[in-house]
Amino acid sequence: MAQPYLHEHVTCVAAPATWLSDHSGQLRGGADGLYVDDRRVLSRLIVTVEGAEPVPVQVRRTSAASARFTAVLPGLGDDGPDPTVTLERRREAGPRGGTETLILTNLSHAALTVEVAATCETDYATMGAVKDGRGTGSTVDIGGTPAAADDGMRVSVAADPAPDAAGALRWRVTVAPRDSWSVRLRFTRTDVAPITRVAEPSRLRVTADDRRLDALVRTGVEDLDALRHTDGEHVYYAAGSPWYLTLFGRDSLWAARLGLPLGTAVAAGTLRALAARQGVRHDPETDEEPGKILHEVRPADAAHWLPPVYYGTVDATALFVSTAADAYRWGLPATELEPLLPHVERALAWLAGHDGFIAYQSSAKGLANHGWKDSGDGVQHADGRIAKGPLALCEVQGYAYRAAVDGAWLLDAFGRPGAAGWRDWAAGLAERFRAAFWCPGGYPAVALDGAGEQVDSITSNIGHLLGTGLLTAGESARVAGHLAGLRSPFGIRTLAPSSAGYNFLSYHLGSVWPHDTAIGLLGLVRDGHRQDAAAVIRAVLDAAARFDFRLPELFGGDDGPAPYPASCRPQAWAAAAGPAVLTALLGLDADVPAGLLRLAPLSPSPVGAYRVRGLRVGGGELDVSVSAAGAVTVHDGPAGLTIIQS
Length: 646
What we know:
By secondary structure, the protein is α+β, with helices and mostly antiparallel strands. The protein is 26% helix and 25% strand. Helix 2 (211-226) packs across helix 14 (577-586) and helix 5 (316-329) crosses helix 8. Residues 15-186 form the Putative glycogen debranching enzyme N-terminal domain.
C-alpha cells in the first residue's frame, strides 16, 4: 500500500507526541491522528454541531506544539449572508498525548441552543503500519471511557466540563448572544511513564534587514525545542515527525552538531545516549559490530520490519567522534567530555577495522544503503545503473578523515596516547582517496562499488567533503564548482540533472534536503568559498519563505519549490539549518579550550545588516551586530574568551 502523504497536513509536535490532521482539524484516517511513542492514541476525531461538520476557513500554527483551527456553521444563528456562529479548535501536543479545546461562539443577536458532539476512536496502530498505509483495519470507540489494546497499550479521554452522559462526548448547550461556550478534551496514553519536557528553551534570535532570516531561525529553534526527547536522563533531538520521532545515530548527531549555536547540552545528551548503546558484539540480525554507533531505536511494541535497536549505518560512528570534538570546541566541559573518550576510542577502532576504505554491504534483513541516502536506488551510476556493493561512499571517507583528526586532537587534549597514529591513518586515507575517487570530469565519485569501479554520478555528497580537511585547496575549489552546478533556486540538488536517474521530486535523486544544503554551506565557508556560500544562503531563504519557514525534510527544488508529499515536517536536521546559516554568516569558529572565538562574517552580507543575540558558546552568550558590509560590533561575549575578527 502507498505511504500516506503529509504535505497538506498540520503538525503539532512535542516529542514523543504528534498531532496530524488536515486543515479542518478533523481526524479521518490515513495518517491523521494523535501519536505517542510511535503508537496511535487517536485515529478518529470528528466534531459536529447539530449533526453537521463546521466549514473550515482558517488554520494557524501558534507554536511548534500548537495550532488553531477556525470554522463556521452556516445555517445557525441569524439569517443572512454573514456567518454568525464559529467553532475554534485550539490544539496542543504534550509529552503523553494532547489537548483540544473547542470554543463555540455565537455572534448573532439571539440565544443559540445546539448539540456539540465529538466522535473519538483509536486503532492503536504502530507508526510503521501507518507509514505503510495499513493502520490496523479496526477501531475502538473511546468516547469518554478508557480503552486498552491487547498488548497493554492504554488510552484515556477526559472532558471539562463533563459530557451530558457517560460514555459519549455530547453536550446540549445554550450560548447567549455575543457569548461563547467551551470544552477541553484531553487524550492521554497512560501505559507510558510521564515525561518531563526539557526546560530552558533556546534564546537564540536574530534581527536582519532580510526578515526571512529572523523567521527561519525562530521557527527552526522552536521546532528543535519541540523535538527534544529524553533517553533516561539524556536529552537528544528526535529525528523528525511523524515517521522518525525517536533516537537516530546519523540524524540526531547532525542535528545536535548543526544546532551547537543553541548550546552543547543536546550534543552531550545525544553522545551519552548513543554511547550507552555502542556496539559490543557481531550480530548479523541487527548489523551490530564492536564500537559501531547505531542507526535507530524504536519502542519494542512499535518496531516494524527493522529490529528495535538497529545498527545499519556506515557514517554515524565517525560522526559520533567529530560531534564529541565539536561539542568540546563549543564549550562542553571537560568533565562531561572525558567519560566519553573510551567510546571515542572504540569508534575510531571500528573505523580502522575496515580494509582500505570505510564500506558497507547491505544485509537481507536491513536497509539497502547505509549512508544518508539510504533508499534502495539512492546510489546510482550516471547512466542510471544501481550501484552494487559493498559500497564505499565518498562523504563517509571525509567523515572518517575528520574523525581521525578530531580524535587525535581529543586524545592530545586529555593526555591519552595514540594521537600520532590516528593522524598518520588520516593521511593514508586521504592519499588512497585521491588515487581512487577522482573521476575524469574533475569531481569525486559518489562511491566505489564492489568491483572498485567509480560510481560516477555528480551528487551533493561531495559537498560533505568540504571543510573536512581531506581535500587540497585545488580539490576543494573543484568540488565547490561542481556544487554550484548542483545548486537550484532553493538549495543544493542531491543529484545532477545530467544523470539518467534524475527526478526533482525523488527521495534522493534530485530533490533538495535542507540539512544536506546546510552541510555543504558550512563546508564552503570553512574552505573559503564565500561567494558560493552567500548564494546558498539566499537559496535557503527563498525556500524557507515558500514553506512558512518550517523547512521540510526534503522538497523538489526546481520550480516552486514542490513539496515532497511524504516528507517529515518538522525534521530535526532541517530545523537545524537555521542555526547553521547563522554559523555560516558569522564565519564563526569556536575553540573554547584555547580561549578563542573567531568571527569572519560573509562580506558583503547576503541578508543585509543583522544582529544575533543569545548564541551560546563557552558557557556564555554572544551578542553581535554585523553591518551589510561585514563590519562587526560585539555588544557582549562569553567571559574568558578572546574574540578575534577577520
